[in-house]
Amino acid sequence: MVALLNQPFLASSLYVSPTVAERERQLYSNRLWHPLTSSTAIPEGHVQAFELLDVPLLVTRQGGVLRAFLNRCPHRAVALQQPSDGATPCRRLVCPYHGWTYDLEGRLMAAAREAEFLEPFNRDDWPLPPVRCRERIGLVWVALGDDPLPLEAQLDLLLEEAGESLEQPRQLLRRSALSLDCNWKIAHDNTLDDYHVAIAHPTTLHREQGPVRHYRHAVSDHATLLATPYPDGGELLTFGMAPWTHLLLWPDGRLALIQFPPLEVERCRMEIWLLGDAAFEAQADAWMEQLQHFLVEDKRLVEAAQLGYRSGFTPGPAHRLELRILQQQSLYRQLMGISDGERLA
Ligand code: FES
Ligand SMILES: [Fe+2]
């Protein structure tokens, strides 16, 4: 922890550069796992399309096995389903362009007028391209690169602190999204920032998390935790993890996932998912409103910080309550190959 506190914050040049954003894609986001939805959202015999960082994906469940593919027909690249279709019961995936037909294991079962291809045609040569996919802590995870960190390493602190409670199946009760005019790292840093809560969220998040003197922190190689005592007993656990993800776990089993995937160098998306037992359905709208309330308080702060960073800012000193930011930045430096002086290796 002491070593972390001796690091400076990341240089502002890393928050405005298209070259850095491109390197992040290769060295950072492609090395990590991304949550796509809850496990319960894709029942047996269903298919759902997603878009993750501009990559079209398709997830299927067949014979109890969850699989992910590129949602891109090997013939002429058209998508087999649309994300707006949601989870759909499906026996065969039929491409809407020329009718190539796949099973839910990604095998090509039929192509129209098969005898008339210009080269000899073998169906086995044209499966849907597979994508790495796992289920853990009740969520569906995918990795886009060839060499991701082990998912269990990425989730190390979560499994250690709350493994049993997190593994419970949960319904995805609500989803909402908003775009922010800032680099994803500003938004992620801000949500890891335990120094600003009492000042910037006095009547919202601060009330939920309680006095700073009761904060408990934990840090691992890949994640951080702020645990705060909850009025009705137990603790509210606020995990921060790579790539740009936060999990809030309440003592009653409710789970909120907040993430900030990049859209452009200076713009990201704030996504909020609410997960829990179906019994929480009736209160899900009020719960979402409560979270949006403090996250919208952050919008003007993070967008102002982006303008400041763009003007050629040199970051000030880190506070003890900004330790979670320093941990995330240390992992970022490590994956990006950034050495002293903030130069890309
Ligand atoms: S693009 Fe799918 S069958 Fe041609
Ligand atoms: Fe905040």
- CATH superfamily heading of the largest domain: Naphthalene 1,2-dioxygenase Alpha Subunit, Chain A, domain 1
Number of helices: 9
Strand content: 25-35%
- The CATH architecture assignment of the largest domain turns out to be Alpha-Beta Complex
Derived structural class:
alpha+beta
Q: What's the β-strand tally? A: 18
Bound molecules: FE2/S2 (inorganic) cluster, fe (ii) ion
Order of helices and strands: HHEEEEEEEEEEHHEHHHEEEEEEEHH
CATH topology of the largest domain: Naphthalene 1,2-dioxygenase Alpha Subunit, Chain A, domain 1
Number of domains: 2
Largest sheet data: 8 strands, antiparallel
Helix content class: 25-40%
List low-pLDDT spans. none
Average of per-residue pLDDT values: 95
Separation of termini?
25 Å
**Rg, please?**
22 Å
Overall spatial form: globular
Q: State the CATH class of the largest domain.
A: Alpha Beta
In short:
The chain is an alpha+beta fold. Helices cover 26% and strands 29% of the residues. It has two domains: 2-30 and 169-339, Naphthalene 1,2-dioxygenase Alpha Subunit, Chain A, domain 1 (Alpha-Beta Complex), CATH 3.90.380.10; 40-134, Rieske [2Fe-2S] iron-sulphur domain (Rieske Iron-sulfur Protein).
Describe the structure.
This protein has two domains: 2-30 and 169-339, Naphthalene 1,2-dioxygenase Alpha Subunit, Chain A, domain 1; 40-134, Rieske [2Fe-2S] iron-sulphur domain (Rieske Iron-sulfur Protein, 3-layer Sandwich), CATH 2.102.10. Helix content is 26%, strand content 29%. It has helices at 2-5, 18-28, 151-154, 156-166, 184-191, 197-200, 205-209, 284-310, 323-336; strands spanning 33-38, 46-52, 55-62, 65-70, 88-89, 93-94, 101-102, 108-110, 130-136, 139-143, 171-180, 216-219, 223-229, 235-241, 245-249, 255-259, 262-264, 267-276. Strands 11, 12, 13, 14, 15, 16, 17 and 18 form an eight-stranded antiparallel β-sheet that branches. A seven-stranded antiparallel β-sheet has the order 1-10-9-4-3-2-5, with no helix packed on it. Strand 13 (223-229) and strand 14 form a beta hairpin. The longest helix is centred in the last third of the chain and has 27 residues, at 284-310. It starts with a helix and ends in a 9-residue tail after the last helix. Bound molecules: FE2/S2 (inorganic) cluster and fe (ii) ion. FE2/S2 (inorganic) cluster binds next to loops. Fe (ii) ion is lined by residues 190, 196, 200-201, 298.
